[in-house]
């Protein structure tokens, strides 16, 4: 995780995106979570066995640029709309995890005949309860050594996925990627905490076939939050994956890939 840079560069919307494309077939735009994406992302690798998967580092993550005008998730969404047009993607499935789920939901809300379906995996981005109820864990107060136990089902699972956070032993590029990713997620998600107060009411605009997948050990946004997310999107399916946390695609990528691919295949069959 956050070790190997993506191989290519594409400029769109004033952003130089770090990007990779794997596989052949129907296109999938994969939108990564709070920890970023690297060239060995396990979910991307599995989806690419039957689809053409396009994955980019969000503006400010990895080696993607973040121009001065890109300061909010709203700006990121429009940069992705420009990227989809620049790559001339059509009939593309949106698959977003965590922060990427927020971005994917915002893209779907805006609507485009280029998008075919939506898969949200432990997505943040919306507020369903009243103002006094905290629904999204405040990750910004966490020290680096506290992150694994919150982002994953257990601290041990997180340390394994995050290379034990042994920064003195990590290549310099990997340490820089992690630091840059954390700086950018703070910029985009500090206040209000990882959500757009208006998104909840806009989710009714989503017209795409939608699957919402959730880890039953998600400590950042619990299963009830996931059910509320699915309930706000007409016709959305909601499924729980056992034994994984917020970054469950690193803990059990096979299960998330299996359910995502089954959903995408069923959509083509309709």
TrEMBL record:
Keywords: Hydrolase. GO terms for molecular function: arylesterase activity. It comes from the Bacteria. InterPro entries: AB_hydrolase_1, AB_hydrolase_fold, AB_hydrolase_sf. Pfam families: Abhydrolase_1 (PF00561). Residues 26-253 form the AB hydrolase-1 domain. Its EC number is 3.1.1.2. This is Arylesterase. It comes from Terricaulis silvestris.
